[in-house]
Design a protein that fits this description.
Helices cover 74% and strands 0% of the residues. By secondary structure, it is an all-alpha fold. The chain folds into two domains: 66 residues, no CATH class; 97 residues, no CATH class. The model has no long low-confidence stretch (mean pLDDT 94).
Length: 183
């Protein structure tokens, strides 16, 4: 909860990747609050009051995952909605050519997005492809699996793209960027 709140304020891409990790952690602990408390919640070095807030947050996530039937796979609806909303923002940035650097970075990564999309066999939109790719590579790193040099370069490009995107989204949320086609 603490990390999620901070990431949500500062970097929307990191927030989504973090929340996907939380979903997977909850699944790994069998969507069981007792296990989640023992393994995750009790490791927070915070006041009892804050720990109770964290426990409530995890409890709410487990309830949502159960109700939405996401205890085995998939993402919570609010995260899916957010990712789709981010793609609308991405399309508005491109349509309005609101930031030429963003357009340049996107055009540079577009062939990589298309390649990943075609290899996945799924017709995900650009933001979803980028986030899924970063998440898969994050999981490989966590598992200490070797990542080839070409893949590392692609990761850097995807990370650069989503980092710049997140910077623009933060500016938009703070009222420092206006897009007419995004409402």
């Amino acid at each position: 909860m603490i990390v999620a709140e901070e990431k949500r304020k500062n970097n929307i891409s990191e927030y989504i990747l973090y929340m996907w990790q939380i979903e997977d952690a909850i699944r790994a602990l069998d969507v069981n609050m007792e296990k989640i408390t023992d393994v995750l919640i009790n490791n927070y070095k915070v006041s009892d009051e804050k720990r109770e807030q964290i426990s409530t947050w995890f409890s709410n996530l487990t309830l949502m995952m159960t109700k939405e039937q996401k205890t085995q796979t998939g993402h919570l609806q609010f995260l899916e909605n957010l990712v789709n909303d981010l793609n609308r923002f991405h399309l508005a940035l491109l349509n309005e050519q609101a930031d030429m650097e963003y357009t340049r970075i996107y055009n540079e990564i577009k062939p990589d997005l298309e390649l990943v999309r075609s290899k996945s066999g799924q017709n995900h939109h650009d933001i979803e492809v980028a986030l899924n790719t970063l998440y898969i590579l994050l999981m490989l790193k966590i598992k200490n699996q070797a990542i080839e040099e070409d893949t590392q370069k692609a990761v850097w490009k995807f990370g650069n793209f989503m980092g710049y995107f997140s910077k623009l989204y933060k500016a938009f949320e703070q009222g420092n960027l206006t897009l007419e086609s995004y409402s």
